[in-house]
Structure formats: structure tokens, C-alpha cells
Write a structure and sequence with these properties.
The chain has 538 residues and is of the alpha/beta class. It is built from eleven helices and 28 strands. It binds uridine-5'-diphosphate (UDP). The site of uridine-5'-diphosphate has 11 residues, from helix 2.
Length: 538
């Protein structure tokens, strides 16, 4: 409805004069192109050249001012996928005076978030690369509120899941193609360019085989804030464990099929004494699927992008991922990584078909659906004989595609057995106590006192006060870790202690300087920071 950018909302003449006089202003966060997001005033876009334009004038600002390093390789990543050479952003520069000779600018009055979607037809990519990063980029900059507008510059059409992108703001997102209909030179009054990567947990294997990101910075809490927002937009309320418990089997209907799905559903229902429901993207609306998953006790699915919907599972639920023959579950872990993010509180189980009899291959399909007929005979034979796809890079490895697009007859007893190893009684949300995971502060007022007995024996008494935040917390177990290091040595002696003081006599030498490091530990694994090192002379 609001696709047309109204010119009446802003004083056109004033806007044009501001652009000519002030030019473009840019201030960015981030030190590298891979972690940079830029805020612009008066960033323009030529729909004919398909280039962004930075206009220089007396008042223009460009921070960072990188000179030609701006092209090495780019100013920033437009998508959340790191350093992908199809996702780079840059602009061309012109003097503001050139505006006299250019098409009349059309001003975009909305605050804009300008970004690239990475693969809008694949649900995993939609959530992981786009929706979560857009949501949290908007959280980072207060003027990117619900009245701001998304601009997708990757050049795709709406794609299969455009309705999901529409939930993120009240204004219709605009695609690169649509910009042409708005004018030849668009000028964004206020815009942000780029996307936060803090919520991403997986790298797809462009430079090294795929796997969890090296430094994951997101926890279940932030994931659930996002899913809560999405569910509110979809008008789905969270039923509080009111109704019956059930299992959801998320099936694929086009490829990578479970061949004995009916048998699987019966077996799950029988084993866990729960209703078991099937859903698929092809047969059910997105909100129907979310409504079901958000109250499910267990989600069972073939490896594939639909499993990203585990995002919506309630805490305590179980994710069961099925892998076709020769696909090692350890090598493909986007959904395992998601389920096991700190605070996600999901149980994750992988099952793999290890029986060649139970797999159906499709060597004659097109290559992108796993066909291998285009390969030479020897290579085809090697692939068919192979028992496991070796680790590989994204995205066109024929052996991987051949194996991942197999259909599978699931061996029910072996599946039930692996689920039972983890899920002992009934699966699903329990009256479990969720450990809140608050960390201790530094111990305070640490002191040491030394005493020397003769020429070879000495003692070191160390004492400290509890961390300041402890007096406001209920903590099951409080312990202290003390490291004693002789000055100049690389090694130290570690101790775990329950009290706030201790006298050390083992291995303590007279007339020596010791460095004493103390930190507090809550509930065995919540390690606090070390207090400032204590220097103790015996
Ligand atoms: N998809 C589906 N049913 C199918 C095949 C695919 O729902 O039978 C969905 C899948 O969940 C993903 C998209 O179609 O969102 C692309 O699937 P593809 O097999 O290419 O990717 P993968 O699931 O392996 O990531």
C-alpha cells in the first residue's frame, strides 16, 4: 500500500537544498569490513547505474575515511554471511555540484535499513542470515523502529518466505528491482547499511568445511526474544502447558523423504504415549507450523532447512535430526549448534541411517538434486561405493548432494534406541529449574600474610571477601579458585576452596615472591573474573 514514497511528507525543495549544500554524511561502527555497519544521511542510489552515490560537499563526512582501502575488498558486508564476495557494499563518489546535471532526486523519507538477503528461498538461511540479524540490527539503532523500511539489495524477487520479512516492520520491504519504479536517483534521508552478525551461529563452508562459528555470541534468551516478537506478529499466543503433550514430525514432501513415515509416526506415538502430528512447508501455513512447534515436546525431522524451526520449540523439548546414509551428523551441525546454544535448553539427538539397504539414491536427477550421471564413470563408482562423504567445501560437491538427497527408510528400533539414550521418561518441557547463569563478580579485599619457619619452611595465609553481587543472589554452590604462582615461573598451583581464607604451606618457600590469583565460581561452571593479582612475599 505504502510502496509509493510520498513526496508530500517532506519539503522537497528544502531536502534538495540540504543535499546540495551538506552532501552525504557517513559514520560507521566496526573496525573491519566484516563487522561494519554505517549510518548515512543523504546516501543516494542511482537505479540506472545500480550504484550507491556519496555526494561530497563542505559538510560531508566519511568515517572511517579509508581512502582506497575502501575497495580492499569492500567497505562492508551487506549480508550477515561473513566476507562473501557477492555481498560487498560500496559507493561511488561525486561532488554535490554534479547534482545539477543529474536526474532530480527522489527522497526516501523513511529511515532505511539497506541490506542483502542471502538465500531467501531456504528457511535456514532466511532465519539465520536475515531475520535474526535484521531484528537485532534494528534493536541496535533506536531509529530503526517499526516505522523504518527494509531495502533488500541482493536482487532476488520476493522469494518463498517474504511474509516473514514483512513482520519485521510496518512498512512493506522494497526490493532492488522496485527501486527503478521510484525514480532514477533515490536519496535516503537517513539510512543504515549492513547487518549485525552477533546472532549468527554457523558458517556454511565457503573457505573451510562448514561448522559452528568460532566465536558464538548469542544465547537462547535472545533467540526467544526474537521468536516471541515473531509469534506476536503472527497472532500466536503461547499456551502455558495447558493442553496435551505431542510430538511433531516435520516432513519433506519433495525430496530427502522418510519412506516409512506412517510407520515412524505410529512408533513414536506408541513409544512415548503421545499424539504425533506431521507438518510440512508444502501443506501447512507458516503460522500453523509455528503454533504447533511452539508447544511440542519433540520435533523429529530429516536434516534440512525446515529444522531451523526448532527456534520456536519450548524449553526442555527434544530435537531429533535424521541423517541419510553416508552423511556424518558431526559434519553438518547447523541445527545441533542451534539446539545446544547456551540457554536454548533443548535436547538434541542425531540419528543416521547406517544401512545401505534402507537408502534410495537418485543418480539420474539433475546435479543440483544429487544426480551424478554427468560425472565420469570412475568417479560415479567411487561415490556409489563410498561409505561416508568426506568433509568438503560448500556448495556443489556432487558426492554430498548425491548423499544428502537420498530417501531413507528409517530403522525404527535403532531410532527409538538413540532417542531413549537421552530421553528417559516422557520428552518435553518439565518442571525443570532453569539455572539462570549469572556470573560472580570479583572477590574483594584480598589479603595475604606470610610467615617463615626456619630457612626452608613458610606459610601463606590468604583471605578475601565475597563478590559484591553474591549478597543479592541465591546460589546453590559458591567455591573459590586460587592460583599460586612463584614470580617468574610459568606454572602455578591451583586450588578449589569453599571458604574465604586458606593457609597454604605445601611448596611454599621462604624469601620468595608469590603471585596469588583468586576468582569465585558459582554452581561448578560459572567462572567469575580474577581479582587483581596479589603480591605476597614470604
Ligand atoms: N524443502 C521442503 N520440502 C522438501 C524439500 C525442500 O520443505 O521436500 C524446503 C527446505 O526446508 C528449504 C528449501 O525447501 O527451506 C530448500 O531445500 P533444500 O533441500 O535446497 O535445502 P536444505 O533443506 O538442504 O537446506
Amino acid at each position: 500500500q505504502s510502496q509509493e514514497l510520498s513526496r508530500v511528507q517532506i519539503d522537497y525543495h528544502a531536502a534538495l537544498q540540504a543535499l546540495v549544500e551538506d552532501g552525504t554524511r557517513m559514520v560507521c561502527t566496526g573496525r573491519m569490513h566484516t563487522d561494519r555497519i554505517c549510518r548515512f544521511e543523504s546516501l543516494c542510489y542511482s537505479t540506472e547505474a545500480e550504484e550507491f552515490v556519496f555526494f561530497h560537499s563542505n559538510a560531508s563526512v566519511m568515517l572511517p575515511n579509508l581512502g582506497s582501502r575502501r575497495f580492499q575488498p569492500a567497505l562492508l558486508d551487506l549480508s550477515s554471511v561473513e566476507d562473501h564476495n557477492t555481498q560487498y557494499f560500496n559507493f561511488v563518489e561525486l561532488p554535490a555540484a554534479a547534482l545539477k546535471f543529474m536526474p532530480k532526486p527522489v527522497f526516501v523519507p523513511d529511515v532505511a535499513l539497506i541490506t542483502n538477503r542471502f538465500n531467501p528461498d531456504n528457511l535456514m538461511h532466511v532465519f539465520h542470515d536475515d531475520l535474526l540479524p535484521i531484528f537485532y540490527t534494528m534493536q541496535q539503532f533506536p531509529d530503526l523502529d517499526l516505522e523504518s523500511r527494509l531495502f533488500f539489495m541482493e536482487g532476488w524477487s520476493e522469494g518463498l518466505h517474504f511474509d516473514l520479512y514483512k513482520l519485521l516492520s510496518n512498512k512493506q520491504p522494497l526490493l532492488r528491482e522496485q527501486l527503478k519504479t521510484l525514480g532514477r536517483l533515490l536519496c535516503f534521508t537517513k539510512s543504515y547499511v549492513g547487518l549485525s552478525k552477533v546472532t549468527t551461529w554457523y558458517q556454511y563452508g565457503f573457505v573451510q568445511p562448514q561448522g559452528p562459528k568460532a566465536n558464538i555470541l548469542v544465547s537462547g534468551n535472545e533467540i526467544r526474544h526474537f521468536t516471541k516478537f515473531m509469534m506476536e506478529k503472527l497472532n500466536i499466543s503461547l499456551e502455558e502447558s495447558a493442553s496435551e503433550e505431542y510430538i511433531v514430525v516435520f516432513s519433506r514432501t519433495i525430496n530427502r523423504l522418510i519412506l516409512n513415515e506412517a510407520e515412524l509416526i505410529l512408533a513414536l506415538a506408541q513409544e512415548f504415549q503421545m499424539k504425533t502430528i506431521t507438518v510440512s512447508i508444502e501443506d501447512h501455513s507458516f503460522s500453523h507450523i509455528v503454533r504447533l512447534i511452539s508447544n511440542a515436546s519433540m520435533l523429529v525431522s530429516m536434516h534440512g532447512a525446515q529444522l531451523v524451526m526448532s527456534l520456536f520449540l519450548p524449553r526442555g523439548a527434544t530435537v531429533v535430526e535424521l541423517f541419510p546414509y553416508a552423511i556424518n551428523p558431526e559434519h553438518y551441525t547447523p541445527y545441533k549448534t542451534l539446539s545446544t546454544l547456551p540457554g536454548m535448553d533443548l535436547q538434541y539427538i542425531a540419528w543416521q541411517n547406517t544401512d545401505r539397504e534402507n537408502t534410495v539414491t537418485f543418480p539420474d536427477r539433475p546435479w543440483d538434486q544429487g544426480g551424478i550421471a554427468h560425472l565420469d564413470k570412475a568417479e560415479q563408482e567411487r561415490i556409489i561405493k563410498s561409505k561416508e562423504v568426506p568433509r568438503h567445501l560448500c556448495c556443489r560437491n556432487p558426492e554430498w548432494l548425491f548423499r544428502v538427497y537420498q530417501d531413507t527408510k528409517v530403522d525404527i528400533p535403532s531410532l527409538i534406541q538413540v532417542i531413549r539414550q537421552t530421553v528417559k521418561s516422557k520428552p518435553g518441557p518439565k518442571k525443570q529449574k532453569w539455572t539462570s547463569g549469572l556470573y560472580p563478580g570479583k572477590v574483594r579485599d584480598a589479603k595475604c600474610q606470610a610467615s617463615v619457619q626456619g630457612t626452608s619452611e613458610a606459610k601463606l595465609s590468604v583471605s578475601w571477601q565475597i563478590p559484591w553481587n553474591l549478597k543479592y543472589l541465591k546460589v546453590r554452590e559458591v567455591k573459590y579458585e586460587v592460583w599460586i604462582q612463584e614470580q617468574g615461573e610459568n606454572t602455578y598451583m591451583p586450588y578449589i576452596l569453599s571458604h574465604q581464607n586458606h593457609t597454604f604451606s605445601e611448596n611454599i618457600k621462604p624469601f620468595t615472591i608469590y603471585l596469588v590469583w583468586i576468582r569465585c565460581i558459582f554452581n561448578k561452571n560459572l567462572l567469575g573474573p580474577f581479582a587483581d593479582v596479589l603480591l605476597c612475599s614470604t
